[in-house]
Design goal:
Layout: H1 5-25, H2 29-39, H3 44-71, H4 74-93, H5 95-104, H6 108-126, H7 130-140, H8 143-153, H9 155-176, H10 181-200, E1 210-211, E2 222-223, H11 226-235, H12 238-250, H13 253-284, H14 288-317, H15 322-342, H16 349-378, H17 383-396, H18 398-412, H19 414-432
Antiparallel strand pairs: 1-2
Helix pairs in contact: 1-4, 1-7, 1-8, 1-9, 1-10, 3-6, 3-7, 3-17, 3-18, 4-6, 4-7, 4-10, 5-6, 7-17, 8-14, 8-16, 9-14, 13-14, 13-16, 13-17, 13-18, 13-19, 14-15, 14-16, 15-16, 15-19, 16-17, 18-19
C-alpha cells in the first residue's frame, strides 16, 4: 500500500525535527563542558569569546548556507552539515593532542587557538541545518497550517538543547569527568543521524509524484507533471531568482523588522541558555544540580509548551499571522523576566522555577514563530535566503548576550544584567508591533 500524503507530511516533520535537534547536540555541548575546560586552563574570557565569535560565525554561515540550501537539495545539504560538524566536534575533543602535534605542547595559548579555529569551523557549518528545514516545510504544508507545523518543528531546538543537558550534564561529566566525551559522543550520534537523513529526508511532495494543492478542506494531493518540475527548477536560478530575492528579502521592510526583533528575542534566549547555570547559582543561590535542572525544565517543558501553544494560537486566534502572536509573547516574556528578577534567593525552589519556566514558555514562541513570519513575508521560494538573513541578526545578538552580558554583570552587577534582558524583551515586542497590521504574502509566492 502506497503511503498517503499525510503519512509523508508526518514523516517529513519528524525527520526535519530530529535532524535539526542533532545539530543542537553538537552545538550547545560547549556550554556544558565549560567548567571542565576551565580546569585545563581555558579562561572564562576566552570561553565567552568562543560563545560570541561562534554566534557571529554561525549567523554568517546560516545566511550563506541558506543560499546553498535554496539552490540545492535540502536533503543533501542537511546531511552534509551533520557530517562536517560531527567531524569538527571529534577534532575539538582531540584539540589538546592537535595543539601538541602542531608544536604547542604545554601551551594554553596553542590549545585555545586550536579550539577556537575548530569551534568556528563547527559554527559555520552548523548553518547548513536551518535552511533545508525552512525551505522544505512550506512545500509540504498549506499556508493556513504552516504556523502549527513549523512550531512543532521548532521543538527541535529545545529537544536538542535538553538532550545535550541530559547527555553531558547528567551522564558524561558526572560518570566520566571527561570534557572530550562531551564532543566525541554527541558527534557519533549526529553522524549516525546524517546517514539516516540521507535515506529518510524528502525534499518535497514532488519527490514522490505529489504536490500540496491550494488550501482547501480536503487537502487532496494532486499529481505534478514533469513540465511543472522543470519549470520550477529553471525558475529557481538565474537573474529572475536574484531579482525575486532582492524584492522579497533585501528590499522588504517587514523582513528587516523581523530581523531586528529576532536580535532581541535571541538576546533573551541566549542569556538564559548560555548564562543560565551561572546566573541561577550566583543570583538565586542554587547548587549546580538544581541550576542544571531548572535549565532543563526551561528548555524541555517551558520551551516546548510555548512553541506548541504559540503555533496553535496563531492559526486559531490570529488568522495565521505569526508576528501578532510574537508581540503578545514578548509582552509575556517581559512580565516573566521581571517576576523572576524579583524572586529572592531565599525563596523555595518551586517559586524560582515557575517564573523561569514561563520565561522559556514565552520566549520560545517568538523564537519559533518568527521563522514562520519570515516565510510568510518572503514566500517559500526565498525562504532559505530570508531565514539566513534574519539569522545574521539573531546570532549577532551574541555580542550583547555573550561578552556584553558578562561585561555588564561584572562591571555593574547582576541586577544591571537582568535589566538588559528585560529591556531586550520590551524592545523586541515594540519593534514587532510596527508590523501588526501586516498580511501574509506566502500564499501569493
Amino acid at each position: 500500500m502506497t503511503p498517503s500524503l499525510k503519512w509523508w507530511q508526518r514523516e517529513t516533520l519528524a525527520v526535519t525535527t530530529g535532524g535539526y535537534a542533532l545539530y543542537y547536540l553538537i552545538r550547545k555541548n560547549l556550554s556544558i563542558a565549560m567548567p571542565l575546560l576551565g580546569e585545563i586552563g581555558v579562561s572564562k574570557v576566552q570561553l565567552g569569546a568562543f560563545l560570541t565569535a561562534g554566534g557571529i560565525v554561525y549567523g554568517i554561515g546560516r545566511f550563506l548556507n541558506g543560499i546553498v540550501a535554496d539552490r540545492n537539495s535540502a536533503r543533501k545539504v542537511m546531511a552534509a552539515g551533520l557530517f562536517i560538524c560531527a567531524g569538527a566536534n571529534i577534532l575539538f575533543g582531540c584539540s589538546d593532542f592537535i595543539a601538541s602535534a602542531l608544536g604547542g605542547a604545554g601551551s594554553t595559548l596553542a590549545l585555545v587557538w586550536t579550539m577556537g579555529v575548530l569551534w568556528m569551523l563547527n559554527q559555520y557549518f552548523q548553518g547548513m541545518g536551518v535552511g533545508p528545514c525552512i525551505k522544505t516545510l512550506p512545500k509540504w504544508f498549506a499556508p493556513d497550517e504552516l504556523s502549527t507545523r513549523q512550531s512543532l518543528w521548532n521543538l527541535s531546538h529545545s529537544i536538542g538543547a535538553g538532550a545535550v543537558f541530559a547527555l553531558c550534564g547528567w551522564l558524561l561529566i558526572p560518570w566520566f569527568r571527561s570534557w572530550r566525551l562531551c564532543f566525541i559522543v554527541p558527534a557519533a550520534i549526529a553522524a549516525a543521524g546524517g546517514v539516516a537523513t540521507l535515506f529518510l529526508f524528502k525534499d518535497s511532495p514532488e519527490d514522490i509524484g505529489l504536490r500540496v494543492g491550494p488550501p482547501n478542506p480536503s487537502r487532496a494531493p494532486c499529481l505534478m507533471s514533469r513540465t511543472d518540475v522543470s519549470h520550477q527548477t529553471r525558475d529557481a536560478s538565474g537573474d529572475g531568482y536574484r531579482a525575486y530575492v532582492a524584492r522579497h528579502v533585501f528590499r522588504n521592510p517587514r523582513i528587516w523588522i523581523i530581523a531586528i526583533a529576532d536580535f532581541f528575542v535571541y538576546t533573551v534566549r541566549f542569556a538564559a541558555l548560555d548564562w543560565g547555570i551561572v546566573l541561577l547559582m550566583e543570583t538565586k543561590g542554587l547548587s549546580l544540580a538544581s541550576a542544571t535542572t531548572l535549565c532543563f525544565v526551561f528548555e524541555i517543558v517551558g520551551g516546548n509548551a510555548g512553541m506548541v501553544v504559540a503555533g496553535w494560537a496563531t492559526d486559531r486566534f490570529f488568522d495565521s499571522r505569526a508576528h501578532r502572536t510574537s508581540v503578545v509573547c514578548m509582552g509575556g516574556a517581559a512580565v516573566a523576566i521581571a517576576a523572576f528578577w524579583c524572586v529572592p534567593a531565599s525563596a523555595p525552589l518551586v517559586v524560582k522555577l515557575v517564573p523561569f519556566l514561563f520565561v522559556g514558555f514565552f520566549i520560545y514562541g517568538p523564537q519559533a514563530l518568527l521563522g514562520v513570519a519570515t516565510t510568510q513575508q518572503a514566500t517559500p521560494r526565498a525562504a532559505g535566503v530570508a531565514g539566513g538573513f534574519v539569522g545574521l541578526f539573531s546570532y549577532a545578538s551574541t555580542v550583547l548576550s555573550g561578552i556584553g552580558f558578562g561585561f555588564v554583570a561584572q562591571r555593574w552587577g547582576w541586577s544591571a544584567a537582568y535589566g538588559v534582558v528585560l529591556g531586550a524583551a520590551i524592545a523586541g515586542g515594540a519593534v514587532l508591533s510596527l508590523m501588526w497590521r501586516a498580511t501574509n504574502t506566502v500564499a501569493r509566492g
